């Protein structure tokens, strides 16, 4: 499976990884992209699938853009974008509840083989992939308010938006791949076309979409950094596992105060207007 979907289980120091291991974070190879994962209405308190403290990342992300806006070579935002009867929704599986885990089976082509979902097919060629799927409340449904970016999140017209999770038969935590690694999103192609070498990742949720994106980014050869205080997770146990898994894979976990060192700047660009939402960015939505 191409996606980093199965986490390693290791016991390491995880509170501020670059500090507890005695490492000094220096300038990352350029160009550097800021990647903002799923800061949408559905994932903040009051949304359909809220991440505890999810709204707290918004001023941190906005602050990074305000201070270092011109120092990032690119800003990419991912957007969870589900059909109304998505296979990851508990409502589509009678007898299951929100946050239950069920096994979904797929053939070698990534077609769903099991379950009551209308997207399941008769897999005559056999089952090639078995994925454990957490079942979620209905959330981030295409063209609903819940799927929109939070109104207080900074956006700029030159930002790029990569949508994920729009294939109804498979979930997509990573902004690079669906959970089975069957298909890529546009993200890797967009980054490589611009020569991006390093990623600074923020957003929601740390123990799912942020971690999966970071693990895939590192595996694809990017120098990958996760800004811990610009992310929030669903459970503390999940966050601890994700931090350990990312460190084991070579991802560097930093705090917002360390972003300047990653960018190789002291005070930042101080780009004006960085805390006010601007024009909507260009959207990439490759559905087949």
Automatic annotation (TrEMBL):
It is an enzyme of class 3 (hydrolase). One of its GO terms (molecular function) is nicotinamidase activity. Residues 1-22 form the signal peptide. Pfam families: Isochorismatase. One of its GO terms (biological process) is pyridine nucleotide biosynthetic process. InterPro entries: Isochorismatase-like_dom (IPR000868), Isochorismatase-like_sf (IPR036380), Isochorismatase_Nicotinamidase (IPR052347). Pathway: Cofactor biosynthesis; nicotinate biosynthesis; nicotinate from nicotinamide: step 1/1. Its EC number is 3.5.1.19. Keywords: Hydrolase, Metal-binding, Pyridine nucleotide biosynthesis, Signal. It comes from the Eukaryota. Coiled coil: none annotated. Residues 33-256 form the Isochorismatase-like domain. Belongs to the isochorismatase family. This is nicotinamidase. It comes from Branchiostoma belcheri (Amphioxus).
């Amino acid at each position: 499976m191409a996606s980093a979907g199965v986490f390693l289980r290791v016991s390491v120091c995880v509170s501020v990884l670059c500090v507890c291991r005695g490492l000094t974070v220096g300038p990352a190879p350029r160009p550097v992209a800021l990647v903002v994962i799923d800061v949408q209405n559905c994932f903040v308190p009051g949304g359909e699938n809220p991440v505890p403290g999810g709204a707290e990342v918004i001023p941190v992300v906005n602050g990074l853009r305000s201070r270092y806006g011109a120092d990032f070579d690119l800003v990419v935002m991912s957007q969870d974008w589900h059909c109304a009867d998505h296979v990851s929704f508990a409502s589509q599986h009678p007898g299951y509840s929100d946050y239950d885990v069920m096994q979904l089976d797929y053939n070698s082509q990534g077609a769903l083989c099991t379950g009551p979902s209308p997207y399941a097919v008769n897999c005559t060629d056999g089952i090639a992939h078995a994925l454990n799927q957490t079942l979620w409340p209905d959330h981030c449904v295409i063209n609903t308010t819940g799927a929109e970016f939070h109104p207080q999140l900074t956006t700029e017209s030159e930002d790029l938006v990569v949508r994920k999770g729009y294939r109804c038969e498979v979930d997509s935590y990573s902004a690079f791949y669906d959970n089975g690694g069957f298909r890529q999103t546009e993200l890797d192609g967009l980054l490589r076309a611009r020569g991006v070498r390093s990623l600074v990742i923020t957003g929601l949720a740390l123990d799912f979409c942020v971690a999966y994106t970071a693990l895939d980014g590192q595996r694809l050869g990017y120098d990958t950094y996760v800004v811990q205080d610009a992310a929030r997770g669903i459970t503390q146990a999940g966050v601890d596992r994700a931090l350990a898994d990312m460190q084991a894979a070579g991802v560097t976990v930093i705090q917002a105060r360390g972003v300047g060192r990653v960018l190789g700047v002291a005070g930042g660009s101080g780009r004006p207007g960085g805390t006010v939402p601007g024009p909507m960015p260009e959207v990439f939505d490759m559905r087949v």
